[in-house]
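I have a small job for you when you get a moment. Would you make up a two-line entry for one protein for me to read? No commentary is needed, just the two lines. Write everything out right here, beneath this request.
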Amino acid sequence: MKNFHVACLLLLLALVVRPAVAAIEELEFSSPEQEERYLNLIDEMRCPKCLNANLSGSDAPIAADLRAEIHAQITAGNSDDEIIEFMTARYGDFIMYRPPLNIGTALLWFGPLVLLLAGFVVIRRMLAASSSSASTSENLSAEERKHLDQLLAETPLATTPLTKTKDQP
């Protein structure tokens, strides 16, 4: 019975654990400059399937396809700008780690700053409101204080007045 449990556990592990074998891509370039351009481009572009991995660090099949596409375009003689334009036309600005500033990406660029400023304004207003409410009780006239003390003395819960006038000890 014990061997059966061990065999089931090994079978389960074999099914659950995925082998961490990544395909090694053998790409040939005609010059070291082309290889450097390739490495720069796959580092600058994001994998469309992965959340936060560039093409050079992703094992997703689409990342392998995009790396092959970039290699083909470099060997065909396309410039970096042409390759970036091709990729953004196909996958949108999301493909770039640093998307260009335009109407569609303005929220990405300025959204955090706007939220930070809005939070600052809200906190400032809250502090101003709390300080103004505290200062209004200090600005009571002698007659208003006397009337307040009289009202507080009339209530059964109040045993002593909250504010003292000059006449009180």
